[in-house]
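[step 3/7] fold_predict: job queued, chain A
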Amino acid sequence: MRIGKPYISGTEPETWSCPVSVDPLYSELADIAGLDSLQSFVLACRLAFSLLEGFKEKGGQLLHEDGTVFPLEAYGFGNSATGSAGA
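[step 4/7] structure written:
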């Protein structure tokens, strides 16, 4: 997963975008737009974690290099962390 540095992508009105990729699952995602740099960054993070959560829900596994399970919910994104599954 990679989250890039937000950049100004429009001027009328000012819009910010943030690059995001979740390789090798989703390598060609569009940059995520927001009203300011923080919003575009947070939305990009939420998208990446949502995609990873969907991957897990479909039976995929997220593992560290040593083979231990990567605890996605420990990072505070997605339904698992908020308890709002199905909401």
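[step 5/7] annotate
Helices lie at 37-57, 78-82.
The two ends are 25 Å apart (CA to CA).
exit 0
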